[in-house]
């Protein structure tokens, strides 16, 4: 057992509350990680607001990085002292895991969203309230995390952990969508709607894949300017009435690829409409969860493809080290997106993120 301090979501829109709790020792393939940093992602706020995941009270956080402090008896690939970035968890034995798509794991809910450990036990001891844990296989808004070997990717020890936090979700999602799901050929074109962390990661990955036109669309002029420093070749303000026409003009008839990293219906429809016949669209924004998208059938006739790509369809243990490699080569400079806060200021960090003042807040633990 280890004593921890956690920031707990208690009710929608309310500030997180700090609680002193006791975290169980790792069993089986579990690992105990001392948290060095965690990103704050929009999905944590959907959890706080009761839109996604187990009900409050619950510990959010799913971009945890840290140092392995203890391991369960069945852990094979990690040792005490290893540096890890945590991502979404998976079982390792279902059909999708065996087909190398662990982000689709058929046991996804059991491993990520029950508020309990995958083995069904409580992670938090002596907790009479029943605070949920193991959100996305971690619950990283706490000084220690009980994760599993399956959702931990090892990092080189010379890589700054306080910069590594967004790798497990935001960076994996944006970059994985381009590199794993879209696989553009050299010279193809892409439009990315939404210049948040996920959209910026997609822009950087599109540059890595040598896309010839990388078009970013957002309402925030500062973010559009930043996207251009990261690889966007063109920027369009989303308030323009002719966004789709501008993209068709820039790409000679429509982009090869379109990414929605916003999640509201009109933007999703523009993402589809801006692609050419045969275009490939990936929808990543989650704000319209539970709603229907009215897609004109005319848009589907000529081999357009629309898909989701949760966590960039990655295998964390393979993909996160690839992103580190790109970063160290100067090709994926995602630390430019980060604003760091001490753990005590987590509510300030969330407020700044919700107001659009920062792109990727990262909480750093002492
Ligand atoms: Zn996330
Ligand atoms: Zn599985």
From TrEMBL:
Q: What lineage, starting at the top, does this entry show? A: Bacteria, Pseudomonadati, Pseudomonadota, Alphaproteobacteria, Hyphomicrobiales
Any one cellular component term from GO for this entry?
A: cytosol
UniProt xrefs under PANTHER family: ALCOHOL DEHYDROGENASE, ALCOHOL DEHYDROGENASE CLASS-3
Annotated keywords = Metal-binding, NAD, Oxidoreductase, Plasmid, Zinc
Please name the GO terms of the biological process aspect recorded for this protein, alphabetically.
Answer: formaldehyde catabolic process
EC number(s) per entry: 1.1.1.90
Q: Identify the residues that the record assigns to the Enoyl reductase (ER) domain, covering every copy.
A: 13-363
Q: What class of enzyme is it?
A: oxidoreductase
Question: Which GO-annotated molecular functions does the record name?
Answer: aryl-alcohol dehydrogenase (NAD+) activity; S-(hydroxymethyl)glutathione dehydrogenase [NAD(P)+] activity; zinc ion binding
Q: A Pfam family name for this chain?
A: ADH_N
Family (UniProt): Belongs to the zinc-containing alcohol dehydrogenase family.
The cross-references to InterPro entries, in alphabetical order and at most eight, read: ADH-like_C (IPR013149), ADH-like_N (IPR013154), ADH_Zn_CS (IPR002328), ER (IPR020843), GroES-like_sf (IPR011032), NAD(P)-bd_dom_sf (IPR036291)
Cofactor(s) in the UniProt record: Zn(2+)
Q: Which organism is it from?
A: Rhizobium gallicum bv. gallicum R602sp
Superkingdom of the source species: Bacteria
Q: Is the keyword Oxidoreductase in the record? A: yes
This protein is called Aryl-alcohol dehydrogenase protein
Q: Does the keyword Cell division apply?
A: no
């Amino acid at each position: 057992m280890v004593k921890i301090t956690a920031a707990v979501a208690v009710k929608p829109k309310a500030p997180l509350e700090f609680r002193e709790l006791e975290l169980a020792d790792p069993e089986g393939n579990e690992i105990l990680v001392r948290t060095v940093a965690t990103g704050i992602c929009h999905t944590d706020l959907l959890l706080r607001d009761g839109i996604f995941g187990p009900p409050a009270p619950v510990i959010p956080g799913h971009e945890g990085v840290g140092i392995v402090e203890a391991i369960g008896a069945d852990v094979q690939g990690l040792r005490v002292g290893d540096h890890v970035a945590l991502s979404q968890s998976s079982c390792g034995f279902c059909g999708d895991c065996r087909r190398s798509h662990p982000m689709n794991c058929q046991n996804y809910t059991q491993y990520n969203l029950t508020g309990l450990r995958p083995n069904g036990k409580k992670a938090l001891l002596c907790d009479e309230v029943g605070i949920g844990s193991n959100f996305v296989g971690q619950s990283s808004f706490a000084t220690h995390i009980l994760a599993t070997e399956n959702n931990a990717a090892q990092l080189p020890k010379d890589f700054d952990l306080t910069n590594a936090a967004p790798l497990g979700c935001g960076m994996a999602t944006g970059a994985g969508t381009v590199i794993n799901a879209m696989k553009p050929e050299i010279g193809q074109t892409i439009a990315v709607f939404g210049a948040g962390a996920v959209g910026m990661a997609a822009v950087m990955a599109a540059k890595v894949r040598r896309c010839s036109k990388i078009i970013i669309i957002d309402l925030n002029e500062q973010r559009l300017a930043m996207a251009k420093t990261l690889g966007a070749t063109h920027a369009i303000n989303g308030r323009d009435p002719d966004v789709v026409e501008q993209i068709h003009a820039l790409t000679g008839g429509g982009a090869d690829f379109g990414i929605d990293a916003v999640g509201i219906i009109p933007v999703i429809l523009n993402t589809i409409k801006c692609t050419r016949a045969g275009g490939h669209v990936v929808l990543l924004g989650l704000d319209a969860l539970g709603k229907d998208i009215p897609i004109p059938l005319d848009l589907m006739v000529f081999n357009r493809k629309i898909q989701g790509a949760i966590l960039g369809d990655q295998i964390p243990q393979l993909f996160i080290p690839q992103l580190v490699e790109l970063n160290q080569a100067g090709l994926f400079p995602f630390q430019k997106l980060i604003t760091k806060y001490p753990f005590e200021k987590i509510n300030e960090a969330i407020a700044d993120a919700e107001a659009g003042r920062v792109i990727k807040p990262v909480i750093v633990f002492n």
